[in-house]
C-alpha cells in the first residue's frame, strides 16, 4: 500500500508544481512581471503552503484518519482548479473595467491587485500546504514506528520527484497543446483521481493500534545518546525548527542566485527557467531518497544534520568554482548539436544536465534536511504535529530567502555575493548543530572546531577571490556558441539587477552594446558620438540605429502634433530621445522593468541626452501592463519596444489582451507603434502577433526599419492618418540625423511594407492569435531562435521584383536616383546598385561600388550591344533570362514605374527579330504587371500558362503567380484568378505557410 500511496503522491506533486507554474503566469497578467510582482506571487503561494501546514500541525491529534482528510483536501484542490480560469477571467475583467478606474490612484490600484491575487490563489495554496503533513501522518499511522524516517524521506522524495516532472510536462507539452485553461483542467483531474484513489486505499488497511498522541512514546529514540536527551524538550524543538527555517532561507537564496547565474549560460527563455527549476527540485528529491534509509538509524540526529548542513553550504559556495566552466560546456553543446528538431531536443537535455551539474551537490543535501528534522521531532513530545510544524517553518524560511535574494541581495551584493551569503548561512547552521551535539560524542568538540575553521577559511577565500569576469558573463554563449576570453571586452558597466544582469560594452569600432543577461538589447554606432561628417562620408542609417530612430519618428509622423507619449522599454533611451525632439511634445513617460537598464543607458550619453536631461522625460520603473492598469492617462503615442519575445515574460506584451489595454490607453486620434523582429522567428509567430494586434486595432501599417526589424503603426480609427514626414525635419531631430545620409520623403514612404487592407484577409482566415491564455509565442519563440529561422516572407516583399503588397495597394515606388543608399534596406541597396550601374562607376572604386555592380554593368553593356544588333540570339530562352536579370538590375526596388525607353528598346528588338510569341507575351506581361496595367497583364496570363505547360517558362514562377492572380482579380475574373492560383501555386516553390501564399489564397478563396 505504501508503494501505491507513493505513486499517488508523485502525481500530487506534479499537479502542485503545475499549479504554481500556471499561477505565476496568470497572476503575472494581473500584477505584472516586475521583481516585486514575481516575489509577491511566490510569497502568496508559499505563505498559503505554510499556513496550511501550520493549521494541520495544530490539529494533528484531533484528526481521525489523516489519509481520508488528505483525499478530501486533494478533491477540494481539484475542484478549485477546475473553476480557477473562469474565476480569474471574470475577476480580472471586473478589476480592469470597473474597480481600477474607480480607484484612480496608483497606490490603491496596486494594493487592490495584490489583494485580488492573494484571494485568487490563497485557498488552493492553503490546501496544498496541508497535503504533505496529512499524507505523511496517514502513512505513518499504518506502519511500524521504527520506519518513520524512511517513510518521511520516501514521501518527500515522491512529492519532489512529481514536482520536478510536473514543471517539465506542463512547460514542454501541456501548455502548447492545451493552453493555460486546458493545463489547469489536466492538473485538476489529476487531483480528483488522486483523491478518489487515496480515499479508497484508506479503507483497505486499518490504522495501527495507536493514534497521534501515542506517536512520541512509540517512536522514542533507541539510543540514549540522542541529543534530545541532553536538551530540554522545548530547546531541542526550537533548535531544529530554527534550522528548518534557516536552511530554507539559504536554499531559496541559492535558487534565486543560481537561476540568475545560469540565465547567463542557458538563456532567459521560459523553457530555460523550467529546466533550472526542475533540476533544483530533482536535487531535493534525490536527497530525500538517499537519506530515507539513514534517518531511522541515527542516534545523534543533530550531528547528522550538522554534517549535512556543512556539506550543503560548502557545495553551494564551491559551485562558484566550476560555474565559469559552464560557459565552455555550453559552447561545446552549441557546437555539437545540429540546428534541427532532434538537435533542439538534445539542446534541452544538455542544458538540463548542465543545470544539474551546478545545483545537484548542494540541493541533494537540501533534500535531506526536512526528513531528518521531521524524524527527529517525531521522537520528541510534539509527535505528528512535528510534520506540519517543520513544513510550515521551512516554507516561511523559503519566503524570506526568496524575498531577500530577489529584491535586495542581488542588486546590493551581486549574484556571487548572494550565493556566498546563502552558503555561509548553511555553514553557520551546521557548525551550530555540531557544537550543540559535541558534548554527546567522543571527539565531537574537535569535529565542531574543524568544521568552524573550515567554514571560516572557505568563506574568507571565496569572498576575497577575484569575481567573475564580465567579459565572460556577457558572452551570450546560449545564443552565439562562443565564450569571450577573460578581459577581452571593454565592459563599461555591469550590474546584477532585480530582474536581469545588465552590461554595456564598447566595441572595437568604438560603438556601444547594451545587453541583458548576455543578450544585446540595443547598440549605438560610434557615429552618434562624433560631430557630423562631410556629406560624402556619412553612413547610411542602419541596423539598430535605424530602428531606434524610425520606430519613434515614423510612429510620430502619424500623430505629428502629439503631446503625450509612452515608451515601453527604456533600452538605450533613443526612442524617448527622438520623441522628445518634437516641439509639440509635453511629456514622454518611459516604462522600464529593470532599474539597472536605466543606469546602464546613461553610459550612452550624450547620444540619448534628452531621455535624461529633458524635464519632459519621466521614467517609471514598473511592468508595462501593471503601469497601464494603474494610470488614467491617455496617450497620443504609445511605442512598445520590449526585448525579444523569447525572453521569459516579454511575450505578454504581444498578446490580444495587452493590445486591448493599449488601445484603451490611446487618446482620440492616437497611434500605437510596435517593434517586431524578423530574425530568429518564423512567419507563423509574426502572423500570430499581428493577428492579436488586428483584433484590437481597426487599422495598422507595417514599415521595414531595416532588413530584419519591423515597425507596426496601429490606430483605433478605420484608417491611419497620412504620415507627416516633416517630423524628421524639426530642429533637434534634424541635428541628430545630420550624422547620416539625408532621408527624403520618398525614401521614408518606401519603407512601407504592408497594411491591414492587404494583410487582413490572410490574418482573418487561419492565423492563430497569440494570447495570454494560449501563449504560443512564449512557448515556440526559443525554438525558432535555436533553429535560426527567419520570417523571410515579410522582408522578401521588399526584395521581390514584383512586390506583392505594393502591387495590391498600387503604390508607386519611384527610383530615388541615389548612388548611396540612405537606409540599409534591400530595396534601397538595389536602387543604389542600379544608379551606380548606369553611371558606369569604375569597378576599381571599391568604396563606391556595391557588391555585384561590376557584374551588372557587364550584363547591361552586353545586352545593349545585342539590342543594337541585327542578329537574333542563338537560344531565345537563355537570352530572355539574361534580359530579365538586366531588367532586375535596372528596376529592383521600384514598383509602378519603369524606364519606358529601355523597355521599348527591348520590345522593338523582340519584334524585329521575330522572337517567339511566348517571349513577346512575357515582356508585355511583365511591363503591365509592374506598372499596374491590369487589363494588359490579364490578357497575357493564358499565353504564359500555356507556355509553361509546353515546358517553356519565360518568367519566374513566383512572379507569374503573384501578378497573374492579382491581374485577374483586378479585372473581375475571380474564377480565372482561382485557376491561376491552382495551376501556378506549386510551381512557385513556396511553402504553404508562406505569407505571400496566404495572402493570395485569402484573396481567391
UniProtKB/TrEMBL annotation:
PANTHER family on file: BLR2883 PROTEIN, THERMOSPERMINE SYNTHASE ACAULIS5
Any one GO MF annotation of this record: methyltransferase activity
The family this protein is said to belong to: Belongs to the spermidine/spermine synthase family.
Transmembrane segments: 35-57, 69-96, 116-140, 152-174, 180-201, 239-259, 271-292, 304-324, 352-378, 390-413, 419-438, 450-468
Annotated InterPro entries: MFS_trans_sf (IPR036259), PABS (IPR030374), SAM-dependent_MTases_sf (IPR029063)
Protein name: Methyltransferase domain-containing protein
Keywords: Membrane, Methyltransferase, Polyamine biosynthesis, Transferase, Transmembrane, Transmembrane helix
Domain PABS: 556-732
Species, as recorded: Pseudogemmatithrix spongiicola
Pfam families with a match to the protein in the record: Spermine_synth
Origin superkingdom: Bacteria
Keyword Transmembrane helix annotated: yes
Biological process (GO), any one: methylation
Amino acid at each position: 500500500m505504501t508503494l501505491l500511496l507513493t505513486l499517488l503522491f508523485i502525481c500530487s506533486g506534479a499537479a502542485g508544481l503545475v499549479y504554481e507554474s500556471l499561477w505565476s503566469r496568470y497572476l503575472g497578467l494581473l500584477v505584472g512581471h516586475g521583481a516585486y510582482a514575481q516575489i509577491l506571487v511566490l510569497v502568496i503561494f508559499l505563505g498559503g503552503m505554510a499556513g496550511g501546514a501550520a493549521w494541520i500541525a495544530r490539529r494533528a491529534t484531533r484528526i481521525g484518519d489523516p489519509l481520508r482528510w488528505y483525499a478530501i483536501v486533494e478533491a477540494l484542490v481539484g475542484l478549485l482548479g477546475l473553476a480557477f480560469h473562469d474565476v480569474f477571467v471574470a475577476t480580472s475583467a471586473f478589476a480592469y473595467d470597473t474597480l481600477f478606474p474607480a480607484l484612480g490612484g496608483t497606490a490603491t490600484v496596486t494594493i487592490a491587485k495584490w489583494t485580488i491575487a492573494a484571494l485568487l490563489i490563497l485557498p488552493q495554496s492553503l490546501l496544498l500546504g496541508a497535503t504533505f503533513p496529512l499524507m505523511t501522518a496517514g502513512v505513518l499511522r499504518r506502519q511500524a514506528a521504527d520506519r518513520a524516517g524512511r517513510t518521511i524521506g520516501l514521501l518527500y522524495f515522491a512529492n519532489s520527484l512529481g514536482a520536478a516532472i510536473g514543471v517539465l510536462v506542463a512547460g514542454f507539452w501541456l501548455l502548447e497543446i492545451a493552453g493555460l485553461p486546458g493545463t489547469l483542467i489536466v492538473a485538476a483531474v489529476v487531483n480528483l483521481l488522486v483523491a478518489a484513489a487515496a480515499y479508497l486505499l484508506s479503507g483497505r488497511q486499518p490504522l495501527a493500534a495507536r493514534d497521534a498522541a501515542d506517536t512520541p512514546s512509540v517512536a522514542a529514540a533507541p539510543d540514549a545518546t540522542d541529543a534530545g536527551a541532553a536538551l530540554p524538550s522545548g530547546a531541542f524543538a526550537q533548535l531544529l525548527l530554527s534550522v528548518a527555517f534557516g536552511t530554507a532561507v539559504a536554499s531559496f537564496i541559492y535558487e534565486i542566485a543560481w537561476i540568475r547565474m545560469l540565465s547567463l549560460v542557458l538563456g532567459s527563455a521560459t523553457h530555460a527557467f523550467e529546466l533550472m527549476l526542475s533540476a533544483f527540485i530533482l536535487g531535493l528529491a534525490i536527497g530525500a531518497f538517499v537519506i530515507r534509509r539513514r534517518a531511522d538509524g541515527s542516534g545523534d540526529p543533530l550531528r547528522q544534520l550538522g554534517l549535512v548542513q556543512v556539506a550543503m553550504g560548502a557545495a553551494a559556495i564551491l559551485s562558484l568554482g566550476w560555474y565559469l566552466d559552464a560557459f565552455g560546456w555550453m559552447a561545446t553543446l552549441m557546437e555539437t548539436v545540429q540546428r534541427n528538431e532532434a538537435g533542439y531536443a538534445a539542446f534541452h537535455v544538455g542544458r538540463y544536465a548542465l543545470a544539474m551539474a551546478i545545483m545537484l551537490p548542494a540541493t541533494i543535501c537540501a533534500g535531506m534536511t526536512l526528513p531528518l528534522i521531521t524524524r527527529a521531532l517525531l521522537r520528541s513530545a510534539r509527535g505528528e504535529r512535528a510534520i506540519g510544524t517543520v513544513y510550515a517553518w521551512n516554507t516561511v524560511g523559503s519566503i524570506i530567502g526568496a524575498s531577500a535574494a530577489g529584491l535586495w541581495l542581488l542588486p546590493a551584493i551581486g549574484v556571487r555575493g548572494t550565493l556566498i551569503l546563502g552558503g555561509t548561512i548553511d555553514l553557520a547552521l551546521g557548525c551550530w548543530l555540531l557544537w550543540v551535539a559535541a558534548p554527546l560524542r567522543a571527539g565531537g568538540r574537535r569535529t565542531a572546531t574543524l568544521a568552524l575553521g573550515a567554514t571560516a577559511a572557505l568563506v574568507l577565500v571565496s569572498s576575497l577571490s577575484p569575481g567573475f569576469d564580465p567579459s565572460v558573463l556577457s558572452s551570450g554563449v546560449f545564443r552565439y556558441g562562443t565564450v569571450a576570453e577573460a578581459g577581452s571586452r571593454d565592459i563599461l558597466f555591469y550590474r546584477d539587477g532585480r530582474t536581469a544582469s545588465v552590461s554595456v560594452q564598447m566595441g572595437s569600432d568604438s560603438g556601444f552594446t547594451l545587453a541583458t543577461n548576455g543578450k544585446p538589447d540595443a547598440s549605438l554606432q560610434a557615429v552618434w558620438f562624433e560631430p557630423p561628417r562631410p556629406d560624402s562620408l556619412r553612413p547610411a542609417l542602419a541596423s539598430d540605429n535605424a530602428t531606434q530612430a524610425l520606430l519613434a519618428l515614423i510612429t510620430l509622423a502619424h500623430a505629428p502634433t502629439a503631446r503625450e507619449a509612452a515608451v515601453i522599454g527604456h533600452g538605450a533611451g533613443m526612442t524617448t530621445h527622438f520623441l522628445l525632439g518634437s516641439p509639440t511634445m509635453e511629456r514622454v513617460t518611459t516604462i522600464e522593468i529593470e532599474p539597472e537598464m536605466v543606469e546602464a543607458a546613461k553610459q550612452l550619453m550624450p547620444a540619448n541626452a534628452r531621455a535624461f536631461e529633458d524635464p519632459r522625460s519621466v521614467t517609471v520603473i514598473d511592468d508595462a501592463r501593471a503601469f497601464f492598469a494603474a494610470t488614467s492617462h491617455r496617450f497620443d503615442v504609445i511605442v512598445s519596444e520590449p526585448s525579444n519575445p523569447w525572453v521569459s515574460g516579454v511575450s505578454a506584451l504581444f498578446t490580444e489582451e495587452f493590445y486591448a489595454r493599449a488601445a484603451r490607453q490611446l487618446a482620440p486620434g492616437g497611434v500605437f507603434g510596435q517593434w517586431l523582429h524578423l530574425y530568429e522567428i518564423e512567419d507563423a509567430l509574426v502572423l500570430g502577433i499581428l493577428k492579436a494586434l488586428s483584433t484590437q486595432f481597426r487599422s495598422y501599417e507595417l514599415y521595414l526599419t531595416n532588413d530584419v526589424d519591423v515597425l507596426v503603426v496601429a490606430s483605433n480609427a478605420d484608417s491611419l492618418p497620412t504620415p507627416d514626414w516633416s517630423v524628421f525635419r524639426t530642429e533637434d531631430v534634424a541635428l541628430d540625423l545630420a550624422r547620416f545620409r539625408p532621408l527624403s520623403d520618398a525614401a521614408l514612404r518606401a519603407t512601407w511594407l504592408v497594411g491591414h487592407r492587404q494583410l487582413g484577409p490572410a490574418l482573418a482566415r487561419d492565423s492563430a492569435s497569440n494570447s495570454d491564455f494560449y501563449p504560443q509565442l512564449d512557448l515556440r519563440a526559443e525554438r525558432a531562435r535555436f533553429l535560426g529561422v527567419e520570417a523571410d516572407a515579410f522582408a522578401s516583399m521588399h526584395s521581390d521584383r514584383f512586390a506583392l503588397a505594393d502591387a495590391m495597394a498600387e503604390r508607386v515606388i519611384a527610383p530615388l536616383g541615389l548612388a548611396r543608399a540612405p537606409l540599409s534596406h534591400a530595396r534601397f541597396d538595389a536602387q543604389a546598385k542600379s544608379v551606380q550601374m548606369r553611371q558606369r562607376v569604375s569597378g576599381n572604386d571599391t568604396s563606391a561600388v556595391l557588391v555585384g555592380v561590376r557584374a551588372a554593368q557587364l550584363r547591361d553593356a552586353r545586352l545593349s550591344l545585342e539590342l543594337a544588333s541585327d542578329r537574333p540570339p542563338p537560344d531565345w530562352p537563355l537570352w530572355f533570362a539574361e534580359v530579365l536579370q538586366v531588367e532586375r538590375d535596372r528596376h529592383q526596388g521600384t514598383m509602378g514605374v519603369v524606364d519606358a525607353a529601355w523597355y521599348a528598346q527591348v520590345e522593338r528588338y523582340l519584334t524585329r527579330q521575330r522572337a517567339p510569341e511566348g517571349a513577346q507575351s512575357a515582356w508585355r506581361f511583365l511591363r503591365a504587371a509592374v506598372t499596374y496595367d491590369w487589363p494588359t497583364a490579364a490578357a497575357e496570363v493564358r499565353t504564359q500558362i500555356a507556355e509553361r505547360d509546353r515546358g517553356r517558362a519565360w518568367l519566374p514562377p513566383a512572379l507569374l503567380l503573384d501578378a497573374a492572380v492579382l491581374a485577374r482579380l483586378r479585372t473581375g475574373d475571380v474564377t480565372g484568378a482561382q485557376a491561376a492560383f491552382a495551376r501556378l501555386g506549386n510551381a512557385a516553390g513556396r511553402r504553404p505557410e508562406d505569407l505571400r501564399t496566404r495572402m493570395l489564397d485569402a484573396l481567391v478563396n
